[in-house]
Specification:
single chain; alpha/beta; Immunoglobulin-like; TIM Barrel; 2 domains; 9 helices
Length: 462
């Protein structure tokens, strides 16, 4: 793309804008097709090691395979995995170099396959083995000295990190916690838990979240009891970077203790407008786990991802009824509604483009993402990118979003230019990979080779 100097202005309003004389209005047809999009949807869990402490070499590390990840993305439209790393053999010492090399290789496989991971580390899980976690000092050493360089290097393919480390499965319940994290006569000291969250946040870019198991845990480790608002969201404050995972979704009225009551549910409904949430179902409980309530809860709490595999009976019960709808709507689903374009402009006079989109998914995108209008010369195929300051994380579910880009471009040569909307991953390592760009839910709009969305308009520059 041409390196250019752009003057960008951004306007926001609701609803489409009618075309004026000399301009062209384009309306776009939506689609019900199911397709892959980054950082959202159903996921598969992939466990790195079955926990064994008696013999650190007894268990075989199962590395991620590019072919498996690619097949899931292409055939199942699945772009996420939950990568569970069990550190049982290292509960009393450093993580081995061989294990760390395997973790590095996992992230390389994800990048090659066009996928991302939700990441969690724990010390015990499938087997009920005490102690359930390492000491706080050992946990912080594992994070700061050994895992931080890997997480920083591969943050581009990490969708979110779950707090983990403490208690069985890394789910934090004090009944399955050991050492400083266990309940004592004076209660549970959640400042110890907060130190683990702080250590993880320090390893990640500002735009990445650490997710905790319940709304109550977020309040306790951040010290903030009110939900996120538009002014607090996406700042560097700890409360803005802590999200949620619910691993007993639809089990009963409290999701097996996830909520202490309706106050927690009301809090979560507002907090997840801006903080990511996902997880898994854990047991059938009809009619609570049936389609009608599932759709209501997924929408209310703005779910972005859900486990394909657990609980399998619940997922299967949705098949033929609401499963396709859930697969379409998990996370964001952006539909282009209309565009307003000039038919012809003089380069010195500037170029003004207005687009209206609608998010019909359950949630907004939760990680940073760029917004670009691409101009491609129809003869030379040279491209120019006009970058907007719009933040897709604020394209909330159920709302229309209209934005205008006005650019003065001294280097724009006369000619005819096709227009595209590009929503790439901002990480330089992923920016040009189509699998990491957002595809809009419209008919015949996706350009597979580039990851651009075709705006179906050609503007002439004089």
């Amino acid at each position: 793309m041409l390196a250019t100097a752009l003057l960008i202005s951004l306007l926001a309003a609701e609803g489409a804008i009618a075309a004026e004389p000399g301009r062209v209005a384009v309306e776009y047809e939506t689609t019900d097709a199911i397709f892959a999009n980054p950082e959202r949807g159903f996921y598969h869990q992939r466990t790195a090691r079955v926990n064994r402490r008696d013999d650190p070499h007894a268990d075989t590390y199962a590395p991620l395979q590019v072919t498996d990840l690619t097949r899931s993305r292409v055939e199942e439209h699945t772009t996420l995995i939950l990568r569970m790393y069990y550190l049982d053999p290292f509960i009393d010492g450093p993580i081995s170099g061989a294990y760390l090399e395997s973790v590095n290789a996992d992230f390389d496989a994800l990048r090659a396959a066009g996928a991302k991971a939700i990441v969690r580390f724990a010390y015990s899980g499938p087997r009920d083995v005490k102690p359930y976690n390492a000491t706080k000092g050992r946990i912080l050493s594992h994070i700061d000295d050994q895992l931080a360089p890997i997480l920083r290097t591969h943050a581009d393919v990490i969708a979110a990190v779950q707090a983990g480390f403490i208690a069985r499965w890394g789910e934090w319940w004090h009944g399955y916690a050991s050492h400083e994290f266990a309940r004592t006569e004076s209660g549970v000291d959640y400042s110890q838990y907060a130190e683990v969250v702080d250590a993880l946040l320090a390893t990640l870019p500002d735009g990445r979240s650490v997710q905790v198991r319940t709304p109550g845990y977020k309040k306790l480790v951040t010290g903030v009891t009110s939900p996120l608002g538009a002014d607090t969201a996406y700042t560097t404050a700890v409360v803005a970077r802590v999200g949620h995972h619910n691993d007993c979704f639809l089990a009963n009225a409290t999701d097996m203790g996830t909520y202490s009551g309706e106050r927690d549910r009301a809090y979560l409904e507002r907090d997840t407008l801006y903080a990511p949430i996902g997880g898994e179902t854990c047991r059938p409980n009809e009619p609570h786990s049936a389609c009608e309530n599932a759709l209501s809860e997924l929408a209310r709490f703005h779910w972005s991802y859900l486990n394909w595999d657990y609980h399998g009976d619940i997922i299967e019960s949705w098949r033929g009824d609401c499963l396709d709808d859930i697969q379409r709507r998990l996370g964001y689903r952006l539909e282009l509604v209309s565009g307003d374009f000039p038919a012809e402009v003089v380069a010195a006079d500037g170029l003004a483009i207005t687009l209206t989109l609608r998010n019909v998914g359950f949630a907004a995108p939760y990680n940073p993402r760029d917004v670009e209008i691409i101009l491609r010369d129809v003869e030379s195929h040279a491209e120019v990118a006009l970058t907007a300051t719009e933040d897709p994380r604020r394209w909330l579910a159920g709302e229309p979003h209209t934005f205008s880009v006005t650019a003065t471009h001294a280097d724009l040569l006369p000619g005819a230019y096709e227009l595209f909307l590009n929503l790439p991953d901002p990480q330089p390592s992923l920016r040009a990979i189509p699998a990491y760009s957002i595809r809009l839910a419209n008919e015949s709009i996706w350009e597979h080779a580039t990851g651009y969305n075709i705006l179906r308009h050609t503007v002439r520059i004089r």
